[in-house]
Amino acid sequence: MEEIIAVACIFIGLPWVILHYITKWKTAATITNDDEVLLEELYRLAKRLDERMDTVERLVANDDPSFKPARIAPDLDADNQPLRELDRLLAKRGERK
C-alpha cells in the first residue's frame, strides 16, 4: 500500500504541483486589467502634470523675461545629445552580452 501512495505522489502529485506553479508564474508575468487601469491613470496624471508645468513655465516667463525652461525639447540638439550618448552606451552594452 505504501508503494502505491509513493508512486501516486511521484507520478501524479509532483507533476501537478510543478504545473500548478508554472501556470501561476506565467499568469503573474502578464499585465492584468488592474495593471492596465493603473497605467492609464498614471498616463492621465502625467499629462495633467505636464500641462500644469507648461502653465507654470508660461506664467514665470511672462514675469521674468530671462527665464529659460529646463525641460527637454524634442528638436533641440543640446537636449538630443545626452539621449544619443545613452543610446550609444546601451548599444555598446548590448554588444557585450
UniProtKB/TrEMBL annotation:
InterPro entries listed in its UniProt record: Phageshock_PspB
Pfam families on file: PspB
Domain of life of the source: Bacteria
Any GO BP annotation: phage shock
NCBIfam families: phageshock_pspB
Name used for this protein in its record: Envelope stress response membrane protein PspB
Lineage: Bacteria, Pseudomonadati, Pseudomonadota, Alphaproteobacteria, Sphingomonadales
